[in-house]
Prior knowledge:
Layout: E1 3-6, H1 12-25, H2 37-46, E2 50-55, E3 61-69, E4 78-85, H3 94-108, E5 113-120, H4 124-132, E6 136-147, E7 151-161
Parallel strand pairs: 4-5
Antiparallel strand pairs: 1-2, 2-3, 3-4, 5-7, 6-7
The structure holds coenzyme A.
The site of coenzyme A (COA) has 20 residues, from strand 4, helix 3, strand 5 and helix 4.
Amino acid sequence: MLTLRSFEQRDWPSVWSILEPAFRAGETYAFPPQISEAEAHEAWVEVPAATFVACAPGGAVLGTYFLKPNQPGLGSHVCNCGYVVAPEAQGKGVAYAMCEHSQREAVGRGFRAMQFNLVVSTNERAVRLWKKLGFTVVGTLPRAFRHARLGFVDAFVMYKELIA
Ligand SMILES: CC(C)(COP(=O)(O)OP(=O)(O)OC[C@H]1O[C@@H](n2cnc3c(N)ncnc32)[C@H](O)[C@@H]1OP(=O)(O)O)[C@@H](O)C(=O)NCCC(=O)NCCS
């Protein structure tokens, strides 16, 4: 059974150990691959409205996500999230559970929609998963992501209204 709960500062070493290889790889997030631990903490924990972890029964952190408004002011009813799952825990529904949890959290906090701004087109697992969870590709940004291995690749803006 997966437990989803709010991030606590004691989780940071585990969360960073999950984020660091994902960011260093430069294949899925636009964060600079050489991002420092302090910058990652700021981006994942300090700037967002909330950060969560998904834990195994023994307590090990398997995944993490953040939730924040996508825009200030008149766009602040639309939220944005980022999700990362530990490589050894992938393919077991952790991101699916985190995304469902984030949608409930978002509605509870008054958000009306969720937007992913830069889903890398070559990140097929993520694109398929977000579609399965009801997100639509509303636009393609031509060559907007500089993939560490593949060079310039398209990125998708994906969107889901949470309140009809
Ligand atoms: C993209 C990412 C978040 C997906 O996480 P994940 O936990 O592996 O995703 P899930 O397991 O929930 O879903 C992936 C697939 O596993 C399947 N799955 C779900 N439960 C499963 C289970 N119990 N056993 C096997 N497979 C399962 C899902 O149906 C899904 O199948 P699909 O590929 O046909 O869509 C993860 O690969 C990751 O962290 N990547 C690096 C960072 C990243 O890309 N973040 C997203 C940026 S947009």
